[in-house]
Amino acid sequence: MAKAVKLPSGNYRVQAYKNVNGRKIKKSFTAATAKQAQLAAARWQAAQSANVDPDRLTLREAFNKYFAAKENVLSPSTLKGYYKIGKNHLKGIMDLPLSKLTNEQIQRAINVDAATASPKTIRNVHGLLSSVLKMFYPQFALKTTLPQKKKTEMYIPDDEVIRKLLKCAKGTSLEIPILLAAFGPMRRGEICALTSDDIHGNIITVNKSLVTTQEGDWIVKQPKTYSSYRDIDYPDFVIQKIKNIKGQIVPISPNTISTHFKELLEKNNLPHFRFHDLRHYNVSILHAMNVPDKYIMQRGGWSSNYTMNNVYNHTLKSKSDAITQQINGYFNSKFEKSKE
Length: 340
Known about the structure:
It is built from 14 helices and 8 strands. By secondary structure, the protein is mainly α. The chain folds into 3 domains: 5-49, no CATH class; 59-136, DNA polymerase, domain 1, CATH 1.10.150.130; 159-318, Intergrase catalytic core (hpI Integrase, Chain A), CATH 1.10.443. It has a 3-stranded antiparallel beta sheet with strand order 1-2-3, covered by helices on one side. A hairpin with a 5-residue loop joins strand 1 and strand 2 (12-20).
């Protein structure tokens, strides 16, 4: 790249080059300072090395190129989520060329989305945007203020609710899925992909998942992450329910599980919670039993304790109340008389 040259106007010009089929293509960049001109030229050259022209490639096109590049390495569910983000978010800047993007424009687009989407969704949008820019416009320094995370109160069923739930589900299509989720814990897609070939004694091998494609078709794929491959040793009462089933253990879809689960709760006046919250129940019980994190991670299919501790590690209210009584009882016994 040539050095910056000061023009009679007081601005600076930098000329950058690229080779196309043996021909040298030149492009000039002019800015108020030498540094700005050099940066613009460097961005253009970096983009050319990836066969991308940021002056022509729009953000929408960059998103689509990113999806195509990742199609064979990301799970169908992840790709489906990415396509949804590309369709529904950042609408105000999607048709701008990459070279025209500014942090102010991006911040405004994020602000618009934040008015109707949750902080978690906005962080997912921003994370995908960051990955797309790193691939096709790596010199862009993305600087965005994101909405603060909201602390949500999450209901987690206790042992008594699980007993009532199992009683209500007995003999229905939900009985086995509930057992596998609450005492494993397995995910919906893992449960629906499970076959009799994956069961050996009390050991269930998790090695696949039922997921939807972009077109909405259900297919069996390998687990989303390497850590999701695992062997789970189930209690006898769970295995007794499935040991004589041949072929697919739960012949329904994950969506059907969620729909029927909601209906089951409403029909029997049980507290509202998601089927996925049965995994929360399982993890909370294991924590209350002082089971080491490493074992819980292996059983639940997590590669690190970050997700487990930040999403799944919730305290059961019944356990929390008992511990609170124990704490207050100790201090009352030691110090209540001293106040007299």
